[in-house]
## 1
Amino acid sequence: MTDLADGNRVRSRDRELGMHRHITRRDFLNGIAMGVGGTLASPWLGGLLAAQTPTPAAQDRPDYYPPTRTGMRGSHPGAFDVAHDLRDGTFWDKAGKPVETGEEYDLVVVGGGMSGLAAAYFYRKHAGASARILILDNHDDFGGHAKRNEFHLGGRMLLTNGGTVSIESPFPYSKEARGLLTELGVDPPALQKKYSGNGAFGGLGFGYFFDKDTFGAERLVTNAPGGFYGRQGSSGKWAEFLARTPLSAQAQQDIVRIEEAKTDYMEGVPQEQKKARLSKMSYKDFLLNVVKAHPDVIPFYQTHTHGLYGIGIDAVPALDCWAIYFPGFQGMGLDRVPSKGLTFTALGEVTPQEEFHFHFPDGNASIARMLVRSLVPASAPGKTAEDIVAAKMDYSQLDRTDSSVRIRLNSTAVLARHVGDPASAKKTEVVYAREQKAYSVRANGVVLACWNMVIPFLCPDLPAEQKEALHYGVKVPLVYTVVGLRNWAAFQKLGVRGVSCPGMYHTSMNLDQGPTMGEYKGAQSPDDPVLVHMLRTPCQPGLSAREQQRAGHYDLLATGFETFERNIRDQFARVLGSGGFDPARDIEAITVNRWPHGYAYEYNPLWDPEWPEGKRPCDIARRRFGRITIANSDAAAAAYTDQAIDQGYRAVQELLSS
Ligand SMILES: Cc1cc2nc3c(=O)[nH]c(=O)nc-3n(C[C@H](O)[C@H](O)[C@H](O)COP(=O)(O)OP(=O)(O)OC[C@H]3O[C@@H](n4cnc5c(N)ncnc54)[C@H](O)[C@@H]3O)c2cc1C
């Protein structure tokens, strides 16, 4: 085939998929930011735009409302250029001398995620309402991973989480984290009792989509039994389900053997030794070498760990997979008690739990919004966990001179240092970059609640051992794509509310399950517009966990929106086409929540050494440095909201007692 014929074929397929359709995503070109007013938002551009700082700042403009922005979100274009210049050593040449703002604060918090907002909250609680606090964040919205996606489709507001899904944790919330929720008016068990997920999809089940490239034939198979972590499937039998798939007869037999396992594959081995062995082999190796399953079963299971770990079964310990209820271990007599050799997440699964979880329609963005409402009362109306859901926040209130707490967005901190000797200095200086200029402020103390791997670049004075420890964890890259549809008739017709697509660009697609709450009401009838959540993790099987994370990070930053859009449309057409879905007609909006620096890195027995008590990289990394302290969920090496809050609390206590 000639290049010309190839090109024509691609163009014709693009038309079928609706790539030409104008949907609510075109506020940028292919991942390259178009700033407000149409200027390119890449911050430095060799200093050409340096003198043109617009006033007022973008966040002060009346139409500034990032939750409704679509296209490439999460780490959106323009959010990370400064940090990358800092990393690459090119920032200071471009930036020139910072402008002295003359601003003085009691506290500067770097990072407006859950940890930074909580730190500001705890500090103000201690120091009183007049405490002057500045929160800096490089994104155009606050909340860090806890971001709100707000769509307006067919006259209806539809909400979902762009990142952090829900209040949940492997371990009970601490007194401080629980206390913070209580003070905000959030009572997870009571909310859970009152508002559970969207019941409209109750009659629908789950399916698997087998793609031709991975499985040799293209097929949607509905009514999946059993299911996997976090999923409930139908109660049908595995053999009957598998017979409808394109999997080989041997793979089918082996999957039945795994799912309905009765064998003790390590008969006679003491319990602790079994667990020790399982913690040092991947689930993939367990299936191939211990269960002795045919390699054809691997593509079926490979991505089952993506949502929780961001990597496949080649890099997750088999013991973790046992703890999170993966199949194959049922005959091995393993007691569900806390054991060595589990990751933080999996250890929680075998530790007795209380009911303490809740999913707001926009995920934990509601908690971030409540924290901001508490810190800057003029920013949002209302005072309850219910009324925050539909509230429209006024971003122009976030950074006002007459407010004791100020939240400055689109502002990347580039330097945090003491004014004088760190051992005795009473003042610190923080420099940040915003809209092509660097600015300097002073503060009595600084909490760095930003991603920990950035800190060595911000604080060149830190001891070498601490810098090395800060660099250790490599955050987990992942993408939560949200697609707004005209309706969910195709899902209804096919009898599915979620489809696992192990071989495809996005490995799952699920109707958004957010609850009806307060004034907010999600989709009710199949004719209503709806949101679909898709998951993509750009991991690279075959490498160590940290190397997979690094590779995924570069992959995400190198992938433009157009590639995402084409893959999304193609996937919808193939998976739901038999239900009458037409991507050119039915897709109304696309938001790609891209998180190259997603979950905090959790230590993994397959890839990390076992450190002595108090000597893990995060223990060393979070040491106080004079009047600069370190928070963020990275400081706990645990990707959970309560951990982020706890680290914010600790960092503030360290500052107050220094
Ligand atoms: C997709 C996804 C889903 C998740 N789901 C859940 C869940 O369901 N439940 C749960 O408990 N946890 C979940 N998590 C984990 C989540 O990371 C934590 O719960 C928590 O929100 C982390 O808060 P944080 O403040 O520690 O970090 P972040 O949310 O990452 O906030 C740190 C902020 O600092 C900013 N920053 C970095 N460098 C600078 C700089 N130099 N200057 C200024 N700002 C800077 C960052 O851009 C970011 O906005 C999820 C995470 C992701 C990515």
## 2
Amino acid sequence: MRRILAGLAFFTSLANAASDYRDRLPEDEIVYFVLPDRFENGDPANDRGGLQGDRLTTGFDPAHKGFYHGGDLKGLTARLDYIQGLGATAIWLGPIYKNKPVQGGPGEESAGYHGYWITDFTAVDPHFGTAGDLHAFVDAAHKRGMKVYLDIITNHTADVIQYRECVNAACPYRSRADYPYTRRGGPSGPSINEGFAGDDLRTAQNFAHLTDMTFAYTPFVPPAEANVKVPAWLNSPLYYHNRGNSEWWGESSLFGDFVGLDDLATENPRVVQGFIDIYGDWISEYRIDGFRIDTARHVNPEFWRAFIPAMLQRARAKGIPNFHIFGEVAAESVDVAQLARHTRVDKFPSVLDFAFARAVEETVAGKSGTTVLARLFQDDGLYEGGAPAALRLPTFTGNHDFGRFAWLVQRARPEASGDEVLQRVMLANSMMFFLRGVPVIYYGDEQGFAGHGVDQDSRQDMFASQVASYNDQGLLGSSSTTASANFNALHPLYKQLAGLASLRKQYVELPRGRQVVRAQSREPGLFAASRIGNDGRELLVAFNTSTSPITARVQVEAGTRGFKALFGACPAPDAPGSVKLTIPPLGYVACVESRE
Ligand SMILES: [Ca+2]
Ligand SMILES: [Ca+2]
Ligand SMILES: [Ca+2]
């Protein structure tokens, strides 16, 4: 009897395994990135986050692009059909932790609607709902076989700590050489922190000597905010760098405050353990499936080498074997070495592929030849784990910080017609889905949102918006604007992305196949690559970044005898190892080897 039961259990677990989302590898996902405040308002009662007063207190002003608009977790849960219909298998949720509602000097205020100004790292922001709402969202996603990735931050908290020397003024960065830890207010000041051997000696014993934080500035916490941070240890200036604002380079890139955001002393073992506990608990409590890590390049590698394995271990202990972690290393150019360094030195399992985004911007929005793409992929070997690891890099074409791809096209080509912009967006989408890496769709791109720029200008509402500078813009591929709700499953971009997603699920060569670059061009024109599966089946994709049709020969596997068209025209190779392709202007083709 026991043996029969055990056998049944084994059979059942096998049957479940096939459909269990937890068994999917990170490279098999299609990610949808959403800012909950801007997606859907499921509960108007929480729009002010339980606060009373005007927007400077509640943070709520649906007519201002820099304040809360009312979107929440209930709204997101109610729209899961829409997200799943697009083909997404995982949702990357913008940070949902409790934020300082409003920050900024007089006249410069804006709200924490984006989630990156955390005060309570243990609670859901009341503007987004309750812990129960988050449970309901995660459970509903899991029930559909979808994963949830949380966006996390360990570099900084909200801007709470101030410096006496520069209240309401800029606080320039004060370096460790000019303002050593062991003198108050500069090298000629009185001796403090005797026995502190510097932040390179990352032991509790050493940091016990760092008790006076007045070496560079005189930090203080305004009394009204003395206990605003949770867990409580975060309220002490002891656990911050207190050296003034980052200048985004050199030492200040690691030790400086992000425009006043309190920069954590991530060398201090208390801080390391504190964040292991904080984010480990989110894994345990919600059994989420991964983390996107904000501002990864502004935290020291030793922190990551302790934090990341601890998170993976916590996830494994919770029965989440394929927990994924990818860092945000915001790169300004096609700089694979910089990204790869964070996988080798910091040991990030993966990083957002900013180099891919920049390369697509240069070649599809801009006027560079497709050699830029070829070079990008040649550098895949630089990542820890080499080219196979590059299959897991989340790829994207635009985002909430540097703007949507449609806007990048409009900026690079102000003369381009709406149709041309739409075609270029579709071409970029096809590259994201057919080339190596995990596609990340930025919410609203599938509705033809473009925006007028970076940051707040690229964070439009999916529900009917009241922001004039959003609503003044026609959407690509539709006669709608953001003044009405846009959850249109018939939008040409939604349909294109859903089609691409379905090919990615149908042909394992796309998420997992080895990529071989087949053709490139020094001017805008042809780019082609084969994706080759474990069984040797070849899937050929080719793109035309020029505005003229291209007919060209592309090398393929010598054994490939014929192709089935997945998109566009796919003739059979007319000589072993060579096929003649024709690709329309700004078009693409996808062909899978037919073995009948
Ligand atoms: Ca709401
Ligand atoms: Ca930092
Ligand atoms: Ca501050």
